[in-house]
Design a protein that fits this description.
- Keywords: Membrane, Transmembrane, Transmembrane helix.
- By secondary structure, this protein is an all-alpha fold.
- The protein has one domain.
- A two-stranded antiparallel ribbon has the order 1-2.
- Strand 1 and strand 2 form a beta hairpin.
- Helix 4 crosses helix 16.
- The protein starts with a helix and ends with a helix.
- The N terminus is likely disordered.
Amino acid sequence: MGRKSKAKERKTRAVANADVAPQVDPAFDDDKPAVQSNSVEYLNIGLMVLSVVVAAFVPFELFLVSYAVLGPLHYLTEISWLHDRKYFTLRKADWALLMVCGLLITLGTDSVLGEDGIRWLDSIPLGQSSLYQVLSTHYMDVMFFAFGAALVFVVAQQTWLRLLGLAIVAICAMLFHGSGPTSATGIYYKLFGVYMPTLIHVFIFTGAFILAGALKRNSKAGFLSFAVFLACGVVAIWLPNIAGDPLTAAPKVFWRGFQELSLNGLNDILRQPTEALVGINLYTSDIVLRLVRFLAFAYTYHYLNWFSKTSIIGWHSVSPVRLTFIVVAWLASMALYAVSYDLGLRWLFLLSLTHVLLEFPLNFKCFLDIGSELRQRLIPA
């Protein structure tokens, strides 16, 4: 075989491999200059401190502004970036199942459907129940299935192994759901019905990315960044409230849109049973403001962390057409929030949820990278 034939064969093989193998996450790329990486880490430390300081004074306002302004741009740019990297799965079409899961969860969310949507879905019979009842009852199971499916898509290449993995995930979801009103069911509901698309995504996964980058580069600045991140989270929760009485309608808007997350957070993070909250002022109570401060810090820094790593991740390197679409969609999203915050939450729920689900494979890859780096340190070759 001649040189040209061999070169052509190598090129063909490389193209074929690119269709099935995920690309390396640039955030964990060792080829980035250490000075550039350290500068970004120190910038992020500053952003963490800034986020927690602003959250200490105007927690409700910071949360709502970050969610409405930074949030949509983050969703759009991250989905674009993930798309160019084949969502870090082993096959090109894996993302489609995660998208379907996102749609099913959206259709099972009362606050998104509204009364008209609920009546419409409730009018569609499905066995002994209705489509609405099935979707609203099983949306946390769909979230669990999407999470498990992402792991399958990351580690399994063979079709039979993938089908087996998806079947096991589906069976586990049914078992967890059917286990009855026990404490385990409560944990399952809270993990996949409340925290997975919210606090786990913006705080746990963000922390994991920081740690993975520090381990990969063996960066003192990276480890310092991770320590400051954890410290800011602790300070946000436990520092006594220093915010004054709210001067805007932000608390009312916040509680309309994020009541379930907040009540569960008060129960689980600050150990306040629901009955203990009866009669307290949800706008000025110290315990409430400490939780909202933590949420404001976690969400704001989650977004700022993404945008601060533009030069490393390169999410802005897209075609002019796609960039134009992103900017127009972002402006339209902010306009919706400006018209009505409640309307913005409803219409952008699917976009927000989709970016969470499509990131699941990368989340698993991140934890696999952390495990690999820790093994190399604890069990050197």
